[in-house]
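In this supplementary section we document a worked example of the pipeline. Step one takes a protein sequence of length 315 as its only input; no multiple sequence alignment statistics are reported here. Step two produces a three-dimensional model, which step three serialises into structure tokens for compact storage. The input and output of this example are shown verbatim.
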Amino acid sequence: MGNEEYVLPGAVTISDAAAEKLLASGDGDAALLYIYILKNGGKLNIASADGALKMNGRASAAAQSLRNMGLIKNTPETGEPRRLVKPGDDLPDYSSRDVQNAAENDPQFAALVNEVQAVLGTILTASGLMELLGFYDYLGLPPDVILLLVAHCVEEHEKKYGAGKRPTMRIIRAEAYKWADRGVFSLEAAAEYIKGSERTKKRKSEIRRILGLQDRSPSPTEERCISEWAEMDVSDELISAAYDKTVLNTGRLVWKYMDSILKSWAQKGLKTLEDVRTGDRKPEDEIPATSAPSGGQEELARMKEYLKKLKQSGE
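The serialised model returned by step three reads:
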């Protein structure tokens, strides 16, 4: 075939340098995310991008690839580039002298110390001051964002443990890393992040109800799966259908198996039970019309599975 030329209406322009880096990387997710960022005026919310691009949790890794290529910075609109950190990472080894110098020479940090202590209702220890300096200096979170972060952590801690209970700096640090990782560097971004967290928390509670887990705390694996499904915005009917399929095929709730089902449906763009019936069914499969098969349907399904195992054992 001969060369073909195309005209792209309303094209998003990518610089030659950026295009060369993306092509050399061979990272399709990074390229797609970069286009998404350009289309959104240079703004990035990891959770929103992951959902819009149907990346199923890969947007964070794609963003890290772009950072490694020098195409985006995990920083406020003004300020120096900051290294992406994760909860398992350690802050720099700040000394008491570092904290003292910051308090004496940076009025913003000095004011931040006083305001954070007022919110927590206590005087920060030396290690607490070093943690706070890490949020400000290493993570690059602005003072007003840090103050909102601390207030948010206090509110969440009181909801969980009672009025007057205060979170430790370790707990606040874990949340600070999340905010920095997701690019929450303004009050507007923080407000949106908190709203999204509330929506996710409510959705996680609904998923636990569907799975009958209201009476106990989920394990780390269960919590991870539930959190991912909540962020994927999987409907109640698909949660129930995946649960039924998991129990039917394994005899119990196997979290990794159910997780693979839901992620497979998401990758195929199947969002409703009808989508699943028409788009993810083998000829011998039947997805129940309700959250649990009834009477004869259940027995028929069990017999099919039993016959399948018999055939496999005889091979």
